[in-house]
Design a protein that fits this description.
Blueprint lengths: L10 E11 L4 E9 L14 E6 L3 E6 L5 E5 L5 H12 L11 H10 L5 H19 L3
Helix pairs in contact: 1-2
Length: 138
């Protein structure tokens, strides 16, 4: 479901933008803070704020557009912990494709664990094709 920023209720959301770069293979992940739920962005007012990690640019805050898909919303009783993780993630400007990419960043904030389903999938595919190559050798 694409986001209509006027229909968002206050909260923290895990979102993704469908693949546009890297031959359409890699989705981009971020977190939306609607209504300054985290309490960290008072200068942005109450409108939705997009918090994302971009390679080589650190963290970028901007108003969101409708091209994002909601994957989940942080439960109200987990907001405080998610806000603490958000503050922690914003203090880690490093970018690492395999360990701290946009999906790791967003899932850490929203879910509490640095995981990337995309990295795991690519790793599994690489292992599979590596095994096929090894087994097909004479």
């Amino acid at each position: 479901m694409y986001i209509n920023k006027y229909e968002l209720t206050n909260g923290l959301y895990l979102v993704k933008r469908p693949a546009q770069k890297y031959w359409g293979l890699v989705d981009h992940y971020a977190v939306i803070d609607a209504g300054n739920t985290s309490g960290l962005f008072s200068s942005f007012g109450q409108g939705p704020i997009l918090i994302e990690k971009i390679e080589g640019k650190g963290n970028v805050y901007s108003y969101m557009s409708g091209e994002w898909i909601i994957l989940g919303k942080v439960k109200d009783h987990h907001i405080f912990a998610a806000a603490l993780r958000l503050a922690q993630a914003l203090n880690d400007p490093s970018y690492d494709l395999l360990g701290n990419n946009c999906e790791h960043f967003a899932r850490f904030i929203a879910e509490g664990r640095k995981t990337s389903k995309q990295v795991n999938s690519f790793g599994a595919m690489a292992l599979f094709f590596g095994a096929v190559l090894l087994l097909s050798r004479d």
